[in-house]
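>> received
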Amino acid sequence: MGETGASGIAPGAGTGGGARASASTQFAFASVTTLFFAWGFITSLIDPLVAAVKGIFSLSDFEAQMSASAFFIAYGVMSLPAAALLARRKSVTTVLIALVTMIAGCMLMLLAANLAIYGLVLLGLFILASGITILQVAANPLAAALGRPDRSHFRLTLSQAFNSLGTFIGPYLGALLFLKGVEIKEGEQLDGAVRAAALIGIDAAFLWIAVLIGLLVLFIWFARRLITKAMPVTAEEGAQRSVFALFAEAASSRWALLGGGAIFLYVGAEVAIGSQMALFLNSEGVLGIPLEQAGKMVSLYWGGAMVGRLIGSGLLTRVPAAALLASFAGAACALCLFVAVIGGSAAGYAALCIGLFNSIMFPVIFTLTLERSSASKEATSGFLCFAIVGGAAVPLLVGLVSGATSYATAFIVPAACYVLLVGFGLAARRASPLRSGDAGSAAGH
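>> returned
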């Protein structure tokens, strides 16, 4: 009867063989989960970095926000090519390519810090984010595939929890390294010693990140056979399709386009708020605290997203996903309007609470779109990752508004994004799903 007996159990799946296979799969999954923490940590360093480069290079708000844009524009450029790369290479090979690309980005950041050239900072961030984009495209399906199919949602959610842990720790350590003694006042330049210390902090941070990614490369390299062996055969199969074919298929689906727009708005709002949060809390009339302390408090914004994801996971077992998305987007919009209209110290704490309601938006938008899109899961998923480029566009707009008015008034921009997300949630609630069970493809953000 071939390789399986009447019971349907493969050879070696008995007590000893099954235990060994289970241990190998668990180790492979743990190896991949470290990658989720790494890219969450690195991504959240952008928030204190925006505040630091504003002072170091005497930039306007718009120019400082170009740091966030240089990072997130990589998603627009690299997501679909990364999907094509994954189709041609095995998952582990693609992960290794991603990690080496990230090291190259870190090396450019070291050069930028030593030469004090802002253009090199932007290039280094773009290359670093290109590696992270490739890593996300490869690691998400890999985490979902390493184990029993009926527990793929649990595994990906657990991996995303480690991603959230990285985003919680990153801003605190970044503020400690980048913002020591940094205070930004209009028309004044940083003291030479403070500027040098901030550049040394950036140099040290990205040097350590490069070293740690190098260790991850070695770890994944030596574990590559174990990871590949633990994967089901179908996880490495799939037709090789061009970037243009994937994009064209996604663009033919109304719901893929709507979901892409929603991801664009959500990521844009989340990044814009986080990247200006330290400067906002530092400003007079809000909390007026030192910039380093304000930068550390940004961790509470991302920590709220971590807590909200845990709470939201429970709520999603009782509340329809579309309704919960509309409710959370409405709450985030209300908080943004409170910040813009009321102001004061209460506005500072209200702004930090927005992270709590951001929590479930990305995975819920992702899965609602996958369920309703007439395009294939691969094309839709690749297009949704491409839409993360919203993190490059919306922060620039917020920087323009804050430069012309104030940090508080600039919250009108993300408020508008959340209003449109309420509309997306209500529309999704009225539309019937075409498919179900695709949550395992949702990326972490």
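>> Residues 49 and 178 are 7 Å apart (CA to CA).
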